[in-house]
């Protein structure tokens, strides 16, 4: 992602109002017929405090899904198989976790009515949902989920992902830090933070695209998942581009409140495109297969069709943008060389370990000689 300092080099500016208008609650009602069904639940102050608090403790009342685990795990035709029923397995887990331990246990939070609303929303949306807040989803925290996905079947699934995500923390603490009119001590617009639960649709990264719109003109399109080569995108490039251009022109441009924005879409099939999300047109949004400097140049170019980019071979595959989030921050700092003090501490530990090993060897050798 381009830094705020680099942004000034290519004259793309964002304002606080641009970011606010891309928040999910601001646009969903207008575009709900062309996007996935969703339910919005305002976050109570107690839950906001919970997200800001260190540590990870889940509410006792929200540990079970709307439907039993057997409904989610047992395959069709296996209902009568005693070995696949999870009742006994759950009792084993509970027995293991109830074993006596001297470790202090943190108090479990209770969200009361909010917890009930989340459960009801999950049930209404079919028992499986995709969570996000006003702007971001916790996609950087998918590594902590049991199946490494963002599919949630109970409130605890939702809370675990939100609590583990740096993207969510950014939404809460620094949503405007790259806006040109942002001042640290200035009064910011009042925000109502909202939990967005979207009906779960099995993701198909091969059909997802990010579109960059400036002055209501589509200037760039690229595949969202640059971590894989999809041959069919190259084969169907013209059809995909034509459908996306038509979709933006008819359903988005002139209807969205902003004239400069980034919109994510799914090209389901020929002639069928659906909306995923809006993002601000600026460095706070990942340019993926472009750079913001390149997009700035595209603004000034007169072209009939937008610039289209996709992974064109296996050699063009990029590494996962979110793989590093599964590593502890200390390890990330050491690998990036961003914290010399941690490196010094690490070297001291290694030196001490070598010294202890050497001393132990000398003692053993001395004992053997006597």
From TrEMBL:
Keyword Cell cycle: yes
GO BP term, example: cell division
Keywords annotated in UniProt: Cell cycle, Cell division
GO cellular component: cytoplasm
Domain of life: Eukaryota
Coiled-coil blocks: none
Family: Belongs to the CDC123 family.
Protein name: Cell division cycle protein 123 homolog isoform X1
């Amino acid at each position: 992602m381009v830094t705020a300092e680099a942004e000034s080099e290519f004259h793309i500016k964002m304002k606080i109002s641009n970011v606010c208008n891309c928040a999910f609650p601001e646009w969903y009602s207008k575009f709900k017929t062309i996007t996935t069904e969703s339910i919005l639940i305002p976050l109570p102050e107690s839950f906001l405090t919970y997200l800001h608090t260190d540590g990870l403790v889940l509410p006792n009342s929200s540990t079970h899904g709307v439907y039993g685990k057997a409904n989610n795990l047992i395959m069709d035709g296996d209902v009568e198989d005693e070995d696949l029923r999870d009742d006994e397995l759950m009792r084993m887990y509970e027995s293991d976790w109830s074993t006596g331990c001297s470790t202090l246990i943190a108090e479990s939070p209770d969200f009361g009515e909010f917890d009930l609303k989340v459960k009801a929303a999950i049930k209404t949306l079919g028992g499986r949902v995709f969570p996000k807040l006003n702007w971001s989803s916790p996609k950087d925290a998918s590594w902590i989920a049991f199946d490494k996905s963002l599919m949630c079947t109970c409130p605890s699934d939702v809370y675990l992902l939100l609590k583990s995500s740096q993207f969510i923390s950014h939404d809460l603490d620094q949503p405007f830090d790259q806006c040109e009119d942002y001042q640290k001590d200035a009064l910011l617009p009042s925000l109502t933070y909202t939990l967005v639960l979207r009906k779960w649709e099995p993701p198909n990264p091969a059909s997802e695209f990010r579109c960059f719109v400036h002055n209501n003109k589509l200037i760039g399109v690229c595949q969202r998942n640059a971590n894989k080569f999809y041959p069919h995108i190259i084969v169907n490039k013209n059809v995909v581009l034509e459908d996306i251009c038509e979709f933006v022109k008819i359903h988005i441009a002139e209807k969205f409140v902003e004239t400069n924005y980034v919109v994510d879409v799914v090209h389901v099939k020929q002639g069928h495109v659906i909306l995923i999300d809006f993002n601000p047109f600026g460095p706070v949004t990942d340019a993926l297969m472009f750079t913001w400097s390149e997009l700035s140049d595209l603004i000034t170019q007169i072209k009939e069709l937008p610039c289209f980019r996709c992974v064109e071979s296996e050699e063009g595959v990029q590494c996962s943008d979110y793989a590093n989030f599964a590593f502890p921050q200390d390890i990330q700092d050491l690998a990036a060389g961003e914290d010399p003090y941690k490196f010094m501490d690490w070297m001291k530990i290694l030196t001490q370990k070598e010294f202890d090993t050497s001393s132990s060897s000398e003692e053993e050798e001395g004992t053997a000689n006597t």
